[in-house]
Amino acid sequence: MATYYIIRVFEILQKEGIYELINEILRKIDKWFKIKRNIRYVYYYVLYRGSTPKPNKTIKVNPNNIKHAISHPHTYKPLSEELIKIKNNPYKHVPKYVLDNHRKYTILGGSWDTYKIPMKNVYYVKGIVERFDEGKDWRNTSKSEWYEMLQREKEMFENDNDEVEQLYASIQKNGFDSDYPIKVCIGRDGDLIRANGFHRVTISKLFNLDEIPAKVTIRHKNWQKLRCKIYKNGLQEGQEDLLDHPDLQDILD
Fold first, then answer.
1. Alpha carbons 122 and 230: distance in angstroms, whole number
2. Contact at 8 Å (CB) between 184 and 53?
3. Domain residue limits, the chain
4. Is the dihedral of CA 117, 71, 41, 200 positive or negative?
5. Buried-most residue among 29, 35, 68, 89 (CB within 10 A)?
6. Quick one: pLDDT band at residue 89, thresholds 50, 70, 90?
7. pLDDT above 60: residue 91
8. Higher-confidence residue: 188 or 14?
């Protein structure tokens, strides 16, 4: 089997070049991830039956309800010297197994959903708010301070700022692009936790958008068990606050 793939690599290189080889590798990776995702869905369906969420399901969320972010080394604010030393960071980081899965369709138990920080404390978020809401130059924002502390290149800083400016202008003119949903995790109590899309979530808040598309990557096992109970028995007394939860609409309808 290994010999076959080695021969195949050389065939593609000789006939179609490195660009097509890269594309072929990416297609294989994408296919493998889809297979793993489908296997997970079947496994979850055995456990949770009709309450099992579809892997590609898109939900509509109010960006203002995304109040926390997954806690990893590049999100902290206020700044401190210790944050440069990522391995020795004194703050709690989300466990590695969560980082390995936080963009994939999965259901995880444990305490991972407690490893979160307020969105307002994320340096990127503070920088975007300072730039567009307070009118500051990028060079005078928290984002600039962070880049300097991490000793990142000026060109990287400027290129990223240009992309954010373009994104802001695009959302202002055309609204949120529904073809590119953000990714969120859902904690044990139904909390929406940002998995990616700092820029888009923050800009959506600045424009007071009522809803944006999202795909759920990680659901806490306790939340999924609650989904299962609600699927079987409906909302119970005392659960009225969950009536409009975006991740329950598929089993409440």
1. 34
2. no
3. 1-52, 56-121+179-252
4. positive
5. 68
6. very low
7. no
8. 188
What pLDDT is stored for residue 80 in this prediction?
52
Asked if residue 194 has pLDDT above 50, the reply is: yes
- Residues 208, 214, 218, 223, CA torsion sign: positive
Reply yes or no on whether the pLDDT at 77 is more than 50.
Answer: no
Q: Classify 30 as helix, strand or coil.
A: helix
Residue range 155-184, pLDDT digits in tens: 999 999 999 999 999 999 999 999 999 999
What are the angstrom distances between the C-alpha of 207 and each of 76, 133, 135, 147, 177?
Answer: 24, 10, 15, 26, 14
- Cα-to-chain-centroid distance, residue 168: 19
- Tell me the HSE value of 98 on the side-chain side, using a 13 A CA sphere: 26
119 in Cβ contact with 65 (< 8 Å):
no
Which tokens go with 234? 């409906």
How far apart CA 250 and CA 233 sit, in angstroms, is 14
- CA separation for the pair 116, 80 (Å, rounded): 18
Distance CA 133, CA 141 (A): 12
Distance between CA 235 and CA 192 in Å, rounded? 20
First to last CA, the chain: 48
Q: Which residue has the tokens 């409906």?
A: 234
Is 121 a residue whose pLDDT tops 90? no
Q: Are 124 and 202 in contact (CB under 8 A)?
A: yes
Closest CA to 59 of 205, 202, 232, 185: 185
Q: Where are the beta strands (DSSP E) in the chain?
A: 58-61, 66-70, 106-108, 116-118, 182-186, 192-196, 212-220
Cα angle value 41/225/64 (rounded, 5°): 90
Stretch (H or E) spanning 23 = helix 18-48
